[in-house]
Amino acid sequence: MFMSMRRFMLVGVLGLVAVATLPASAQVAPDATPNLQLQVPNPGGGFLPATVHATLRQPDGKILVAGDFTRLADGTPRLRLLRLNADGSLDTGFAPAFSSVGTTCVIYSLAWANNSIYVGGAFDAVNGTNSPNVVRLDRNGTLASGWTSPFAVGSPGQPIRALAATSTSLFIGGDIQLNNAFGLARLDAVSGNWDFAWIAQTQNGDVINPPSGGTRGEVRVLALVDGDLMVGGDFLKIANILVRGLARISQTAPVSVRAFNAGLSASSYRIEALQRSGTKLYIGGTFFREVAPFVSYLNRVDIGTGLLDTSWQPSTNGSVTTLALEGSLLYVGGSFANAIPPSGGNRLIRIPTTGNGAIDSAWNTTLDDTVLSLSHDCHNRLIVGGAFDTAAGQLRNGLAGYLTPSGDCIFYSGFETP
């Protein structure tokens, strides 16, 4: 039903494009590559545009792309995970196949460590071998030797939406409830074995009583920061400490919650995106601030304390779901619209980090639905994934690329892959 409605809404959006948006000359067009036009089967017959949920740059410059797609527009099969070469073309030698015993089969998150690809989502098997919801792959796409998922086959209700990996640990976040974990857990990075000593339970709603499966929060983003773990999502408490959507905690057991407070409102505190720049942390999501200045959806805070940088106050005009940093430019994706009045800056914008937070109005583009993932290839291309069908009026089906000024990438463990 959702996909059918999406196709119905596309007709309406395209009808408006001809008469209501900025002239074509004012729109930054996507690059010719990639243009795979990913597809997913339509229950009623034929195919519909797919959604890309995650992208990740490998150390060799190739880009991993993941979502719910099953094929390219030309009929080439790619079952939820594909890889782009450094020039943006399809890596024809990389084709792992993800499957599910039920109707839900989607990849939400990716990570890289130990010369391996970590994949999280709602699925049951890869290349015919069971590894529900989380798997470690060799760089060629085969299941890594010795890996076992802790989840049972047929667990689509416990999707893994966020991953962060070190040489020894794989942190998994999502809407999970398994063993002693609510929303967040730590696995052995090589074997997948559950770490019962590392406990960082999330809570939402009822924060008076002890945490339970019914009051668990949902983790949406994870990142490694100077020996700690940044955790963002839809939760009020973590490890029994009030944190409101964003916490900095220890990677080691017993879990210690650091004295970090981003000052989010008790009524709206969902964090979905993190990006680091030196001692600053960019946070994006659907949130308001507890006290003035009331800068919503996108903030820059101190990475150690969470204190707001009041000199940088952007206005995205809606929710932020993903961030990517290229030198002094922050690319911002989400569900927002009209971030550049009167009708530009739809779902994707960029903001200089050196100014006061004003959006770069000269870089104006429109995607017709939510942007969910951004990755820079560290050359001259930004890879954009999401639920959109068109980018600047051109058909792209969930995956597009934009040429950018430079390949200046600054690497921080857990945010970019060196």
Walk me through this protein's architecture.
It is a single chain. It is built from 1 helix and 31 strands. The chain has 418 residues and is mostly beta strands. The protein has one helix spanning 2-20, and strands at 39-41, 47-49, 52-57, 63-67, 81-84, 98-99, 106-113, 116-122, 125-126, 129-130, 134-138, 160-165, 169-178, 181-188, 202-203, 218-225, 228-234, 237-238, 241-242, 246-250, 264-277, 280-289, 298-302, 320-326, 329-334, 348-352, 371-376, 381-386, 390-391, 394-395, 399-403. The strands form 11 sheets. It has a 3-stranded antiparallel β-sheet, with no helix packed on it. A 3-stranded antiparallel β-sheet has the order 6-9-10, with no helix packed on it. A 3-stranded antiparallel β-sheet has the order 7-8-11, with no helix packed on it.
Layout of helices and strands:
Blueprint (H helix, E strand, L loop, with lengths): L1 H19 L18 E3 L5 E3 L2 E6 L5 E5 L13 E4 L13 E2 L6 E8 L2 E7 L2 E2 L2 E2 L3 E5 L21 E6 L3 E10 L2 E8 L13 E2 L14 E8 L2 E7 L2 E2 L2 E2 L3 E5 L13 E14 L2 E10 L8 E5 L17 E7 L2 E6 L13 E5 L18 E6 L4 E6 L3 E2 L2 E2 L3 E5 L15
Provide a short characterization of the protein structure.
With 418 residues, the protein is mainly β. The chain has one helix spanning 2-20; strands at residues 39-41, 47-49, 52-57, 63-67, 81-84, 98-99, 106-113, 116-122, 125-126, 129-130, 134-138, 160-165, 169-178, 181-188, 202-203, 218-225, 228-234, 237-238, 241-242, 246-250, 264-277, 280-289, 298-302, 320-326, 329-334, 348-352, 371-376, 381-386, 390-391, 394-395, 399-403.
